[in-house]
């Protein structure tokens, strides 16, 4: 039962990750088809339109990551505070990153330091999520084993 619950959590997490990767891949394919022909020649779309689509894709990806982090924060109540803090920090990072891409009208609106820091922050988030999964693999939360406790006479 314990391992089954962890496996369900991991499968759900992996499924969401896979769905996000497929969506991102499809967006990339659509974007690539729009701006290049089979011969490798660039289409008539200008750099401004390509830049706009790339920013739109970044905005969409950061929004999905923000939603996922928010769901994870609510799902890990009762776990060690260090894990909760890491996930809350991940959510904060995603909110900031999403805000940066939301207001940007062009890549020039994003400084190189923002882009570099974003890359580092995404690596930190990945590390935090891997730590969370490692913890869940080795330490099953008690509430997952026995469920919620109610005093006699209380109804759900």
What does this structure look like?
With 156 residues, the chain is mostly helical. It has one domain (1-36, 48-138): Four Helix Bundle (Hemerythrin (Met), subunit A). It is 76% helix and 0% strand. The chain has five helices and no strands. Helix 1 packs antiparallel against helix 2 and helix 3 runs antiparallel to helix 4 (112-138). The longest helix is centred in the first third of the chain and has 34 residues, at 2-35. The radius of gyration is 20 Å and the shape is globular. 10% of the residues are buried. InterPro entries: Perilipin. Belongs to the perilipin family. It is found in: Lipid droplet.
Helices and strands in order, then pairings?
Elements: H1 2-35, H2 47-75, H3 81-103, H4 112-138, H5 142-146
Helix pairs in contact: 1-2, 2-3, 3-4
Produce a short descriptive summary.
It is built from 5 helices and no strands.
- The parts where pLDDT drops under 50 for at least 5 residues are none
Q: Spell out the CATH superfamily.
A: Flagellar protein FliS
- CATH architecture group name: Up-down Bundle
- Count every helix, treating DSSP H or I runs of 4 or more residues as helices: 5
Order of helices and strands: HHHHH
Shape: globular
How does the helix and strand content classify structurally?
mainly alpha
Largest sheet: none
Number of domains: 1
CATH topology: Four Helix Bundle (Hemerythrin (Met), subunit A)
Cα-to-Cα separation, first versus last residue:
23 Å
How much of the polypeptide forms β-strand, as a percent range?
A: under 5%
Q: Would you state the CATH class?
A: Mainly Alpha
Helix content range:
over 70%
Q: Kindly state the number of beta strands.
A: 0
